[in-house]
Design a protein that fits this description.
This protein is α+β, with helices and mostly antiparallel strands. Helix content is 23%, strand content 41%. It contains 3 helices and 7 strands, in the order βααββββββα. Helix 1 crosses helix 2. It is globular, with a radius of gyration of 15 Å. The termini are far apart. This is Activator of Hsp90 ATPase homologue 1/2-like C-terminal domain-containing protein. Belongs to the AHA1 family.
Amino acid sequence: MSNPENSVHLHRVVRAPAERIYRAFLDADALARWLPPYGFTGKVHSMEAEVGSGYRMSFTNFGNGQSHFFTTRYTELKPHSCLRYVNQFEAPNMPGEMAVTVNLRGVLCGTEVKIVQENIPAQIPAEFCYLGWQESLQQLIRLVEPEIPSE
């Protein structure tokens, strides 16, 4: 059963352009690299980055090998400014859809990133989501901030 009051709100400023951050949410290889929290590996099994479609992904606990599968369906994609999507776990004990909104806004030193995740299943304490997002965002920053010169 989902709890509509179980939500998290995150805010960061990232030293990277919004275009690069936006692309990191829509690129399968990028997602597999930055989205899984520490201690997990990620695999994108299928992806179609357009409204009404999405991706199927799994996180695998590196310590015990257990995998958790989920699907994501994009409900809104505004290039370089907003992504809205819903996640659904494939585990029968975690029904319902979590809604995620990611807003990107260019600022003087990069991009302001605001994330809201709502309707988190009651089995997942909000502090676990905060911790997971914090770890994921640290990995996202390591992916999108470097300015690597072209050859």
